[in-house]
Structures are given as C-alpha cells and as structure tokens.
Design a protein that fits this description.
The complex is a heterodimer of chains A (159) and B (513).
Chain A (H helix, E strand, L loop, with lengths): L2 H15 L7 H12 L6 H9 L3 H10 L11 E6 L2 H4 L3 H12 L5 E2 L5 E6 L11 E3 L2 E3 L4 H13 L3
Parallel strand pairs in A: 1-3
Antiparallel strand pairs in A: 1-4, 2-3, 4-5
Helix pairs in contact in A: 1-3, 3-4
Chain B lengths: L3 E6 L2 H4 L3 H15 L3 E6 L11 E5 L2 E5 L7 H6 L11 E4 L4 H4 L17 H6 L4 H8 L2 H11 L11 H10 L6 E6 L8 H8 L1 H15 L3 E6 L4 H16 L15 E6 L9 H8 L23 E5 H13 L1 H5 L2 E2 L2 E2 L1 E8 L5 E6 L4 H8 L9 E6 L6 E3 L9 H6 L8 E6 L4 H15 L5 H19 L3 H18 L3 H5 L1 H10 L9
Parallel strand pairs in B: 1-2, 6-7, 6-9, 7-8, 12-16
Antiparallel strand pairs in B: 1-3, 3-4, 4-5, 10-11, 12-13, 14-15, 14-16
Helix pairs in contact in B: 6-10, 6-13, 7-8, 7-10, 9-10, 9-11, 10-13, 17-18, 17-21, 18-19, 19-21
The chains are: A alpha+beta (159), B alpha/beta (513).
Chain lengths: 159, 513
C-alpha cells in the first residue's frame, strides 16, 4: 500500500471514531497528531473531506493553535515556561541556557533530531517556578544544572 | 498490629519535585525492613514549599514530614517511621501548620485529604450531599440558592453565578449545555489544576447540579493541553461517576440525565475567554464572538449555555449541602465566600491558600508567604494573571475583595498572585505584557492584533531613550485605544499591567540613554 493510501486509511479511521460527535475537528486533529506526531500537510484535504469542511477551514484551525505542528518533533520535547511566575524566579535565564546548551532557538529541533525546544506560557506549576516539561513530565524549581542533568539523562536513554 | 497509612501527593506540582521517587523509596524501604504500610496517593495540600510532603495517619490526625527527598527515606525509617517520630523534617500535625490552620478550606476541603480516584473516599467525606439535596429541589429553587450564596465567577470576571444560571433556566430550547472553563492559562494560577487532580468528583458534582438547575443534559469540560495529569485524573473520575450512576441517563434513579465530556484545548491562551472557548469547543479557531447574544442565551452550538470556571462549579456542591447562608458567612461586602489564592513566583512559601475574602495582600505575602524566596524586598505583585495590574508595596494593605481591588485599578481575577523582588525591571514586564498579547491575540479585532505589536516597539523606543516623552504619550494613547476598542478582555486588559507599571514604577522606563 502506498503512503498516500495508508494516510487516507489512517485519517478515515480517526474521523470514523468521532462520527456523530458535534464539532469534532479539534478532537480529530488531536487524534492525528497523537498518532503521527504531527499533522502533515497531506492530511488536511483528507480531514476536510471526512468532516465535510473546506481545506481552508481545517488549515485555519491547524495554524491557529500552538499545539499542532506540521512537521515531526524531535525524539524528545523540552518545554520551558516563559510566563511571569517563572520569570520572577529566573525563567528567562533558564530558557537562554536551554537555547545555548541545545544550540537551537525556541520551536526548533536539534540537528540530530534529538530534542525539540518549545516555549510554553504557563504549566500551572507557578509556586515551584521556574518550571519545564520534558516529554510530558513536569519539573519544578529547575536550575541550569538540573536542566543539564535532565538533558544528559536523555542522551543515555534509548528513545 | 495496625498497618500504618502513609499519604503522598500525586499532584503534578508534587511530582515535579520528586514525589514519585519518594513514594517508591518508601515502598522499597518498607519492604526491605518488613514494615507493613498502606500508601495512599492524594492531591496536594497546597503547601508547595513542603512538597514532596509525606503524611502519616496518627491518633490525632495526620502528621506531616516535608520537604522529603528519596535520600531522606532510609533515615526516616531508621528513626522509627512510619510511627510518628521526632525528625528534623517533621512538621507536626498537618492541621496545626499555621499556613494551613489559618485557611478557610471550603472548596478545597478534600484536596490533599482524599484519594482523588476513590468515589468511596469522596462519599465518606460528604461528597454528593449537594446533589442529593438538589435532586429534591425544584430547578428554580437550586438557582435561587446559588444566587443567595453570593457566589461570583471565580474565573476572573466575578459575574454573579446565580444570575447567569437564571438566564439559562429561563430560556426555552431543545437542548442546553454546561461548559466548564478549565483553560487555566494565567501565569500564577493553578487552583483549577489542583482541584481537578485532587478532588475531581466535586467538579463533576457541581456541573451535574448546574445541569439539573438550568435544564441542561450535557456538560463539557474545556481543558488545556498543558495539564496532562489533570486530564488523566478527571477522565478516570468521570468514568467512575458514570459507572456508579452519578452521571448518565438516570442520575441516582431520579429519571433525570446529565453527562460530561472532556474536550482538549490546543495551546491558545485566548480560549480562556468564554466566547472563544465556545468557538474552540465547536472545533473552530478560537476567535472571540460579538456579544450580545450572551452565551447564556445563545452559547455552545447556538444553545443556552452556562459557562463557569472550575472553581465556581466546584463551590456549588457545598452551597447546596450547607445552604447559601453558610457560604455567605465568609467574605466581605459583595465578595462573599472564599477565594483560593494562588501565591506564586518569587515567594518563600508559595502555594494555595483558600481564605475568606477580606484578607490583605500584606498578610498573604508575609504571614503566609514569608516574604520573597530570594530574601530581597518584594517590589511588585501582579494580581489576576498576565492582564492584571502590577501592585506596588505602598498598596499591600489592600484587602483581597473584588471592589477594593477595582478601587486601586487592579483586579483579583482568578486569584493568582505573582511576586517579584527588587531585581525586577518593570519596563521589561510591561513590554512582556504587550509581547504576550501579540503572541496570543486571536486576530479578530485591530486594537489587539496590531496594537500589541506596536506596543512592544514603543516600549523599546522609550527604554532606548528615543523621543522618550513623545513615545510615552503615544503609549498612553495606544493603551487607551486598546482598552476602549478591543472586542474582549485580552486586548482590553493587556494595557493594565503596562499602565500600572508606568504609574507606579516610572523610573524603570527612564534608565537607558
């Protein structure tokens, strides 16, 4: 089966899961990204067709929300909080440290595909700031040294 | 011999400080020493500076140890743990810790106490008492009770909840909805998250009562994607409630139905604005809607909809169970009941403090918070999230009450307080307010979409010393345009932190060149 056919089958399967659900587009996009790691451009017409929407409507929603990405992330995703409570405890410096250490800017992935660095605006850990989230795991009161330890741990861990 | 019960939080914040490793170390050590114990995972007590907090059930209530690291565990056992032992980490009875003892725990009464996933635990701690009463009352009577309690929207707008409910009740429609706003995006706030992770059934019960009161049969929780722990806990609790007949077609054999579905956001701050949230729930771009029509008249999928924040809905079961008069005994003036205050940022003892309205900012910052974490003087506090004003030390005697805060051109919002010490550059914080607005603007109206970007540039010019007086005047005008001309609170309030920084900390804008 070709890649195109396989993508069509995948999308149709996800759309079917939300049959009868009102306003399902966001849920379908979550389904696609959870499964494929991103929402590929080729999926947009298929989603539009499946939900009886225009391509523009689907594209508009995908690009509105920070969470949806059009290309795969790295094997690991590091999200550093940039909001006020973290700024009050050195969050800006922590973000700069992450950029220097990984050699990428926010919303970029390291050359080896290892880590995607993302800015996030509040993880709800504001009494234990600064906070980061690494692969869905929350860390509080993070120092530059602790961030280094977390990232070194990734290098040793098989993806 | 009785088996000791040990409690450790599974709240995301506690986990972020190593609570899981502590729990594992305790189980390992107990096994190695042949000590039998029962480990219960709870929500957090909200004393974040003591997390990971370990509690042991004693004859006079729970005794607390904290902050405990996995490395401390062998030492604790060597001293005799889980029996109550003298140890440098021992904080004494949890209920007697001043930070906890001085609170008014109503909405958060069970958080940190019960196993959030155990419906038996919930029932044993007065859970579903409010729903049982509501089922015996006429819908209008339930709405009246909420109105009489004085409960106002805890999401930030402080609109009287009963009034909103009455509007929805009065609508004739084939279908109505309850939409719970759990898109807690304000920096410095985490009360919604803590509640959903620590006592999810109370939110489910509150939404169910709201549904019965206004005639809605379906509820949605719009939950932000940044809260994966809350999602897991709340989803498990919804499934459990349904299995036990507390959700579904026939709630507790009453013949009346209500059910709840979680819908995930996708990282957009604007979706905390209620009409934008409704757009997002319908699967569209989170662009704000014009008002009127109000969501209470024409809301989700064009139907009458109660839109309330997590804490508002979670406060309802107690109001029904104990009565409006009981709830009203707390608070001052038109700010009745309690507010879960979230103390965050540069503060020694950060955490969640549920307190009757009327406590002063100073009491919260110093008596509870113990001053800044760095030990330097507190210079400013941002209240009410990224759209809230910066409050200078000269105004710290302001009581936490909606009207008193409005009186100093500030807002309480969702109850988040972010503390900054004297190293903060207020011009940079003002710049950030505009930057954040530009990043998160939905783009529908011009003052917000264009104004915020221009605001960043103007502040940069002021700080650099380029035509400073001219640009200060321009910034004041821009702020005025955004406040008056924006469609919703994002563009309409993003100038508040800027204006307050200019007013209270003018020197910070005049340092450069």
């Amino acid at each position: 089966m070709s890649d195109t056919e396989s993508l069509r089958e995948t999308i149709e399967g996800i759309v079917r899961r939300f049959e009868g659900v009102p306003g399902p587009l966001l849920a379908v996009l979550h389904g696609v990204q959870d499964l494929l790691g991103h929402v590929p451009a080729a999926a947009i017409p298929l989603i539009a067709e499946g939900l009886n929407l225009s391509r523009a409507e689907v594209h508009g929603v995908v690009t509105f929300y920070h969470h949806f990405r059009d290309r795969p992330a790295g094997r690991h995703v590091l999200r550093v909080c940039r909001a006020e409570a973290c700024q009050a405890m050195g969050g800006v410096a922590l973000g700069e440290h992450a950029r220097r250490r990984l050699g990428v800017d926010f919303e970029e992935t390291t050359a080896d595909g290892g880590v995607t660095l993302q800015a996030v605006y509040c993880l709800g850990n504001c009494a234990c700031s600064p906070a980061v989230m690494l692969d869905g795991e929350l860390h509080g009161r993070v120092t530059s040294q602790q961030l280094d330890v977390l990232l070194e741990g990734l290098a040793e861990r098989k993806p | 011999m009785t088996v000791a019960t040990v409690y450790i939080s599974r709240d995301a914040s506690a986990l972020s400080l190593g609570a899981e490793a502590v729990a594992q170390a305790i189980e390992r050590e107990a096994q190695a020493r042949g000590v039998e114990l029962r480990l219960v995972r709870t929500g957090s007590r909200g004393m974040c500076w003591l997390e990971p907090l370990v509690e042991v059930a004693g004859p006079d209530g729970r005794v607390a140890y904290g902050p405990v690291t996995a490395a401390d565990v062998p030492g604790l056992f060597a001293a005799g743990f889980p029996a109550v032992v003298k140890h440098p980490l021992c904080q004494g009875p949890t209920a007697r810790i001043p930070y906890f003892e001085r609170q008014d725990r109503l909405t958060f009464a069970r958080v940190g106490v019960v196993d959030p996933l155990s419906i038996d635990d919930y029932l044993q701690h007065d859970g579903y008492g409010g729903l049982r009463k509501a089922l015996e009352m006429a819908p209008a009577r339930v709405v009246q009770e909420v109105t009489d309690s004085g409960l106002r929207g805890r999401g930030g707008a402080a609109f009287p909840a009963g009034l909103k409910w009455r509007t929805v009740l009065e609508q004739v429609a084939d279908c109505k909805y309850v939409a719970c706003n759990a898109d807690e995006g304000d920096s410095g706030t985490f009360a919604d998250r803590m509640l959903m992770e620590g006592d999810p059934f109370v939110l489910i019960e509150g939404m169910t009562i709201a549904g019965l009161a206004v005639g809605a049969t379906r509820g949605y929780v719009y939950l932000r994607i940044e809260y994966p722990h809350a999602l897991r806990t709340l989803q498990a609790a919804i499934d459990t409630a349904r299995r036990h007949g507390y959700l579904g077609h026939d709630i507790l054999g009453s013949g009346r139905g209500f059910d709840i579905e979680i819908r995930l956001g996708a990282g957009a701050y604007i979706c905390g604005e209620e009409t934008s949230m409704l757009e997002s729930l319908e699967g569209r771009r989170g662009e704000v809607r014009f008002r009127p029509p109000l969501p209470a008249v024409k809301g989700l999928f064009g139907r009458p909809t109660v839109v309330n924040n997590v804490i508002t809905l979670a406060s309802v079961p107690l109001i029904l169970e104990r009565g409006a008069a009981f709830y009203k005994e707390y608070g001052v003036g038109r700010s009745q009941g309690t507010l879960p205050i979230q103390l965050a940022g540069n503060v020694r003892r950060g955490g969640l403090i549920e307190k009757a309205f009327g406590v002063t900012l100073r009491e919260v910052l110093y008596d509870f918070g113990g001053g800044s974490a760095t030990g330097r003087p507190i210079r400013a506090v941002q209240a009410g999230g990224p759209l809230g004003a910066y409050i200078p030390a000269s105004q710290f005697d302001t009581p936490l009450d909606y009207e008193a805060f409005a009186g100093i051109d500030a807002m309480l919002g969702h109850g988040g307080l972010v503390v900054f010490d004297d190293s903060v550059d207020m011009a940079q914080m003002a710049r950030y307010a505009m930057e954040f607005c530009a990043l998160e603007s939905c783009g529908k109206c011009t003052p917000c979409r264009i104004g915020s970007g221009r605001g960043v540039e103007i502040i940069d010019r002021i700080v650099q010393g380029t035509d400073r007086e001219k640009n200060l005047a321009l910034l004041a005008e821009l702020c005025d345009t955004m406040v008056q001309g924006s469609l919703c609170g994002l563009g309409g309030m993003a100038p508040f932190p800027v204006q307050s920084a200019l007013k209270h900390f003018p020197d910070d804008f005049r340092r450069g060149a």
